[in-house]
TrEMBL record, chains A, B:
Species in which this protein is naturally found: uncultured Blastococcus sp
Source taxon at top rank: Bacteria
Matching InterPro entries: ATPase_NBD, ROK, WH-like_DNA-bd_sf, WH_DNA-bd_sf
Family: Belongs to the ROK (NagC/XylR) family.
Protein name: Xylose-responsive transcription regulator, ROK family
Length: 410, 410
DNA sequence: TGCCCTTGGTTTACGCCTTGAAAGAAGTGG
DNA sequence: CCACTTCTTTCAAGGCGTAAACCAAGGGCA
């Protein structure tokens, strides 16, 4: 435990990890490209790849003719080497997905939660059930699974097992990881849902390839995933998700967290509905929050009263984005979450303008606002990146990943 | 350039760097302690230290008797191995300080700037003059200087030479590093002043030894230095200093940056004076901003009108701190800057209460608010940590540090 | 068809590194 | 004076990456 980084074995592990990461993020490629991209000499690339191929972790997948020379052979990670599971514990359902190493979906399982309240015990049961269901569904053995990532609403504290504080869903210090361990005998990693959505967009979506980027998640709750220097490790508790509870208007409207003037009290779905109600009386009251919001937004172009409410939200959203831009100077800001994506579609120019009004010129000059690309299963996908990330960083050491009683990191 | 981390030479460099960092931050110690703290085997410690001592970079400085065994010999970095210079380009003066490697002050030079405006050319002249003055003063040869760190107000963009955007002092894309290079033939590193103050507090002050901490800087301007996971690399431009321009009250008071509702428009020194004037007419008008503010604050306990203004600032400050706590969940928040230190002294309980009102319970539970420990030269000290940091991370490779035309990092 | 050229990948001699174990060094207590 | 403890150094052994030479596989051209 003490050694590992300073040793010469660690060097090899790091080089394996570099090669694997490059292969994973930049796609299949020739040995030459891998060498220069990962900063490793050609000889070492061959050496390392030799080992990896023997273990079946990477495979040769074709030749690319080159302009008058020996053609490159392309290597890639073997998607079938192992599987990972991503879980999205949402406020209305639990989604479990089984992926191969290339993040191809192999099986899916969704179970609805009671809308009333999220009981930890029920969630644990549903997660465990979902995990077993997808494995059975795709006929994958547990021993072929490298790990399970779980995205939850609220703060995740690692001490060292994950404890979840979900102020908005009534979870107070729920020892989720310990509970899950009793029913799942696989390596677990628990993370904040907003952060994981961000990671998914960063690996596979609109934030791809950018080292400094912020992904905003707007739904009922409001969060942000902040990625600087290519990684998202901000704060000991994955708390960057709590952007929604930053004050943008002291003494402003009261938020469900209890404080005043939180961003979420202006741009969250609940806020929009409530604001419309205050101004213009009750909107349609059927269906869940998401449906009611959708119905409202559908009328934005024809109903000035709706437009008024939306525009107010947009102003606050812009200011919130400006705050992020000022502090982090990302190069992209990605708007995600079911409501965020809709707002991006309906009001992107206005959001941009509102942000510009409040941001400093210099950092704002270099920023691009984008709509998130991934769909409804982005959180599950992001959750699945946790075990993948662990696996790659270990240099593809299956034993290390499985053996560890695994302090979960997220 | 391509290699360096993956190679076996790099391994040695990293191990040297580990040992040096441990020695530097955790103070002198026995070989045994170094070994376990840095995660290196005893043999390697001896080996590495042998080299370092031969180069004169570390030296043996005494024995510590142990309970019935061979006494440990204590090693420490040699303060006289080299020198570094820290520069604080403030809004009213340029302070240049020469330090030895142990950050002992060897010489100081302060030159006042015209209060009217900060002309880049004048600043460059003053910095260069100050550098030569302190060297002459302490009779240190240029060749013994490992580098010069410079703290400036405003955003610093590395592209790759440092370009400074100081919206509040009228600097728009000033290529400061290029200008300085023409007059100073030493490795340079430019950084945001707020961030550097934070680094100083982190290495030597109230934030010492804590991996996740936020240092707030309040003077005329308002900034924050955010340290997560032990390092402060947030954003490609060291922009974390721009916390003062985050909106806490949309449509609120207008800030000198042009936007509305910035935190700085409520808690900066100018804001306090102006607010008092609005409410109660002109305060004393003699002296500079700092003196006038001091005079006002001196009356806070006897003049309810002053107290009213201060308390308003404190409320906003608390909300701003809460925002930082929610997003980063630091374990300490340190209040620095000449005004910040005063507010901490006068109103710490009120600041704490205001922050608590706006923060989420979970992250706030673990946070401690502290007053900064370092004095008026903290920015210069922090600036001097830049070349030191570079030197230590290089594993104490003097040539590497001096040779590099040095992409400045901060 | 045969030769050279270009480009991609592989092998090998070499030097360097860390480790782990064993030996050495420096005190203490009996 | 001899164990015993604690800290430090030495040394053989095993691994690693690099550089440079060396194979492999085509394309173009005569």
């Amino acid at each position: 435990m003490a050694s590992g980084a300073s040793t010469v074995h660690g060097l090899r592990r790091r080089n394996r990890a570099r090669v694997l990461w490059d292969l994973y993020l930049n796609g299949p490629g020739s040995r030459q490209r891998i060498g220069s991209a990962a900063g490793v000499s050609p000889g070492t690339v061959s050496n390392v790849l030799g080992g990896l191929m023997e273990e079946g972790l990477v495979l040769e997948s074709g030749l690319v003719p080159s302009a008058g020379g020996r053609p490159s052979s392309i290597v890639q990670v073997n998607p079938a080497y192992g599987y990972v599971i991503g879980v999205d514990v949402g406020e209305s359902s639990v989604l479990v997905e089984l992926f191969d190493l290339a993040m191809g979906v192999c099986a899916t399982n969704r179970s609805l939660t009671e809308l009333t309240q999220l009981s930890p015990a029920d969630v644990v049961t549903q997660v465990a059930g979902g995990v077993h269901a997808v494995l059975a569904d795709a006929q994958v053995a547990e021993s072929d699974v490298l790990g399970v990532g779980i995205g939850v609403p609220g703060l995740v504290e690692h001490s060292p097992l994950a404890v979840v504080h979900g102020q908005s869903v009534g979870w107070d210090a729920v020892p989720l990881e310990a509970l899950l361990r009793e029913q799942i005998a696989l390596p677990l990693a628990v993370g904040n849902g907003a952060k994981l959505l961000g990671q998914a967009e960063h690996w596979f979506g609109a934030a791809r390839g950018e080292a400094d980027v912020v992904i905003v998640l707007i739904g009922q709750g409001v969060g942000a995933s902040i990625i600087t220097g290519g990684s998202a490790d901000l704060g000991p508790m994955s708390s960057a998700g709590e952007w929604g509870h930053t004050a943008v208007s002291i003494d402003g409207r009261i938020c469900r967290c209890g404080a005043r003037g939180c961003l979420e009290a202006y741009v969250g779905a609940g806020a929009i509905l409530q604001r419309y109600e205050e101004l213009h009386g009750m909107p349609a009251r059927t269906g869940d929050l998401e449906r009611r919001t959708d119905e409202l937004l559908a009328r934005v172009d024809i109903d000035p009263e709706v437009a008024e409410v939306v525009d107010e939200s947009v102003r606050y959203l812009g200011a919130g984005i400006a705050n992020l831009v000022n502090v982090f100077s990302p190069r992209r800001v990605v708007l995600g979450g079911w409501l965020g994506r809709q707002l991006a579609e309906l009001r992107m120019p206005e959001i941009h303008a509102a942000a510009e009004r409040n941001a400093l010129r210099t950092p704002f000059r270099d920023v691009t606002l984008l709509r998130a690309e991934l769909g409804a299963d982005a959180v599950a996908l992001g959750a699945a990146t946790l075990p993948v990330s662990r696996f790659l960083s270990s240099g593809g050491d299956r034993e290390a990943v499985l053996g560890a009683t695994a302090t979960s990191t997220a």
